[in-house]
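TL;DR need structure tokens for one chain.
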Amino acid sequence: MSRWSFVGRTDELNRLLSAVTGTEGRGLFFSGSAGIGKSRLLREGVAALPTDRYAIWSIAASATTATLPFGGLVQVLPAEQPQGLSPAGTLRWALDVLQQQAAGRRIVLAVDDAHLLDPPSAALVHLVARADNATVIGTLRDGEQIPLPIRALWTDDLVDKAELSPMAPAETAGLLAAILDGPVDAGSADRLGRLSAGNPLLLRELVHAASGSEELTRTYGIWKWTGRLELAPNLTDLIDTRIGQLTPGVRAVVELVAFGEPLGLHLLNQAVDPDDVEVAEERGLISVIRHDRRTNVRLAHPLYGEIMRRRCPVSRTRRLQAHLAELLERVGKRRRDDVLRVAVWRLDSGTAQDAALLVDAAGQAFSRYDVPLATRLARAALDAGGGFDAAELLATILMFADRPEEAIEVLDAVSPDTTDDQRFSRWLTVRGMVTYWGLSRESTVEEIAARAGSLTDSADQARIRAFEAIMRLHRLDTATALRLSQGVLDRPAASVAARELARSTIAYLQAAQGQLRRSATAIAQVHSEAARWRADMPYLQLALELARGTRLTLAGDLAGIDAIAADEFADLAGAGDFRLGTGYLAILQAYAARLRGQSDVALRTSLGACAVLATSRVYAGLAQAERAQAAALRGDAAQAAEAMAEADRTQAPGMAVLYPWLEQARGAALAAAGDLPGAVKQLTELVDRLRADGFAGHEVHVLHDLVRLDQAALQVGPTCSDGSRRTIAQRLTELSERVDGDLPPLLARHARAAMAGDAADLLAVAAEFAARDLNVFAAEATAAALHRLRHERPAAAGEARERLAALLNRCDMIRTPALRAGMPALTEREWEVARLAAQGTTSKAIAEKLYLSTRTVENHLQRVYAKLGVAGRAELRAALRAIPGHEGGNVG
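>> reply
TL;DR here they are.
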């Protein structure tokens, strides 16, 4: 584990520096709770100030010096003070000392924990703040008594005062990545961030505790927290200091809230003395929040609950939880959430006897995608005599917890009588789901189809046919999948869940075929019925997201991907450890980042998807394929090849429908390795296969990959009646009239412009790509135009070069064959000479630095000018920034 890094707080740091360096030179004090990062922010701000312009003194006040005159300034003032001076004279002497030591520079006095200053030190700080050539900055802790001279700093308008808020989730994730020397799984970062409440000190202690107890693991370079919290002594001491001593009445309040939050205020007031509730709120132990017409009570900090729950004796814990359940049952379980809350309290208190209540609660937990909680409740329901309903639900949940073998054991123990159509159909579909996706048994499809014939009820048959249809889709029996799905929709007796599962199958197939508008309509219909199918079939969300994600990626709709990655399902899946959901959404996010040119984010996010899906084979191959694409974008051929090998190893046979993504990634990996002929062969064969399968939506993207490899004129497809074959540009133009959306016409235009070598049209295409945030495609089209202009119209190349530099500045490191082909090749020596020249280094200085003659340096520069098509050093900087792989930031 590395040193705790300073991450985030950019706005606050800039504000602090502006308070010192601004024209007014006003000071600034940050206040906040202990551990929020005030002291570190102050130190970073002080370290960023130039000592040649500012005389900087840093003071760290403490309780040990608070009773000593000028004890707070012991680090600043001389050890020997003049004798016989009045208090005012001593202050004037101290100020004169600082002015003399400043030697004409502006004074900056940085005071950490100013609330702990002794009175003379506080008075001197106030006096310094009034000086014309001085600025005071500092920190204060919330809830502490502040010396009057310090308080007067902002009441007299000498400094500004601002509250330092908790770190934002993105900053917390960045801080975790910095301390652990690697990215952290999004779900783990979110849970740690919520537990620490954005407090860096508490976050540090949580990470240290988790690391010391081996609760942090690393897979594919991504850190993941198990969620088991170890309360190290340092962490416990911190929380104890905040909680302080509690009276029995206040302790009862805090304990009840710890086990019941969010707890209705009316319930809490029935269980304890309302006066104790008020005291707990006044001391900052609980928060009273108005939410959705209810007044709820929560603990003021998540870790308070961890401490209270750990320290509460088992007998009292069980009594408190049973009491909470009784309170809510007494007033009536008026809301759907109340059933889940009562069931959890009953289960944890050992008083759960109602199997129906537990089954209902387990279903609610699963509908929220809280897999661990749903598993506990469903197993308890089965143990309490819940019978078939409990077993069916538990087996389903175990499937999505990556425990298919256990699921089969549970199901086989409650195999129903085949004469009970409803139970048999449900048992058959769940068992089929587990064996097909969980155990990768392709024969499941035929088994389900054969046994469905024994059912007489139309609704039960429809349920099985909907499952059979999506299984057939996944193994590429698309015609049968479509027929079965349409048959389900044509059955009036079919349940909502069966109908919407069938509609999701059709929506996916429509997207792959390029019928994006019809797919969008079907997806919207499924989404609109979510409230009616989620309780019966919450995992239908996966089929919906697969269809929706496929449509958005094929449409190039990056904003749409951003939207579904930020909706309620993403939050629920992440919080509830629903790995198939979070893994697939991470794949989509990586795809969007890749097309934007954010290669760092794309690789990190795809690695996160690989880690989340490591124990599940449903989307594991797809995650590895996206990782290969991200690595290829960065020119990392070794990692791309490694990811493709993992994709082949983990790709489940029953997910054959995902082959376009895997084979497209294989082409990118070959190209990254420099095997362009192999990449072209791989992609042209994929085009033929997609054409045969009718997957026109995928075909346009693979054809465009060939355009990016400078193959727009390559002939593909079958021979036409006149004996000729279509070029890629012609085929894309043909498909642009069949595949929905405005992206296919743009891809076709790119192909035609590349084939004709039309620089102006390439730049126009690049502008449209950039408007869609498709920065990689935009940069490649611009590089191709620049390559043409250098040879045909060198004078016109300048604008294209500037545009390319601007596009590459929007991207991280990207090294694609198209960018390499469009850029002039500089030798390492030429690059080094050009880089130094662009920084303004003279030829003589370059010669001395590189141990060359001045004449040799000039010769190198002339060759660079000719290769880049620039007239001199004034144009050189932008030209170098437009060369991918040389990190434009190194230019100067």
